[in-house]
Amino acid sequence: MSRIVSWHADPSRPRFVPPAGAVDAHCHVFGPMAQFPFSAKAKYLPEDAGPDMLFALRDRLGFSRNVIVQASCHGTDNSATLDAIAKSDGRARGVAVVDPAISDAELENLHQGGIRGVRFNFLKRLVDDAPKDKFLEVARRIQGLGWHVVVYFEADILEELRSFLDAIPTLIVVDHMGRPDVTQGPDGPDMRVFRALLDSRDDIWTKVTCPDRLDGSGPPWDAFAQAVRPLVEDYPDRVLWGTDWPHPNMQDAISDDGALVDMIPRIAPTPELQHRLLVDNPARLYWHD
Ligand SMILES: O=C(O)c1cc(C(=O)O)oc(=O)c1
């Protein structure tokens, strides 16, 4: 496998100025590989994209804090994520991916290192297996830590995941809205099924992220804006936003992070919605203690 670059070398400065305290609540770090080797099971092998690069981007885009989500290429070894959090001067927290056999002491160590959630990934192109029964055991064990579960799945398996999701005892955050086909519009079948999930419990949140992944029409991603804005307006207290930098697997159409930031006022059109999306909501999940 050759190493790939999936991020923009020189992103534009966004026109939109985020409110003070804004959080990029979905981003990753890759390596550096010499210090934090990628998993033997990784499905892609990126170039290094470490904490210095992430924090430089944070500052360039006008954000204050990051939530670093363990990327699948690092498997269940969270060292690179923990290292980035440790270097952030308290300005980053994280979401881990764990081996279900993890000990309570190791979970506690992750908590001390700034982890506040675990991620369950159901994308076959990213992981070899997703054992629901073991995931549920992990979900029960993290309850005492006050963590939540982050799930990543595609729209076509949402119906079959419903009983699993219903059984999760913690708050749930769905990555990238479960990848709906946004070209179907705000009332299309994918969004309807996703809204039914949100309506089933008031502790299911989502990340209104990744126009570059979900809107094949390309920048300025009008279909994404039209489909996602009603979601932000209808569930203003349950949405998070993030860049998704360094955009794993997006090497064929590199996204400009400045353009991604300029999507924010299109999906969260008022200062109040922007403040909840970028400041209040992530603070409630990641900086409550
Ligand atoms: O769609 C993807 O390829 C992707 C991959 C990862 C990861 O490798 O962890 O994370 C994401 O948020 C999205």
UniProtKB/TrEMBL annotation:
Listed A to Z, the keywords are:
Aromatic hydrocarbons catabolism, Hydrolase
One annotated GO molecular function is:
2-pyrone-4,6-dicarboxylate lactonase activity
A Pfam match is Amidohydro_2
List the Gene3D superfamilies hit by this protein, alphabetically: Metal-dependent hydrolases
One GO term of the biological process aspect = 3,4-dihydroxybenzoate catabolic process
Identify the residues that the record assigns to the Amidohydrolase-related domain, covering every copy: 23-286
**Entries under InterPro entries matching the protein:** Amidohydro-rel, Aro_Compnd_Degr_Hydrolases, Metal_Hydrolase
Entry's EC annotation: 3.1.1.57
What the record says about family reads:
Belongs to the metallo-dependent hydrolases superfamily. PDC hydrolase family.
Q: Which PANTHER family match?
A: BARREL METAL-DEPENDENT HYDROLASE, PUTATIVE (AFU_ORTHOLOGUE AFUA_1G16240)-RELATED (PTHR35563)
Entry protein name:
2-pyrone-4,6-dicarboxylate lactonase
* Organism whose genome encodes this protein: Sphingobium subterraneum
The taxonomic lineage of its organism, from the top, reads: Bacteria, Pseudomonadati, Pseudomonadota, Alphaproteobacteria, Sphingomonadales
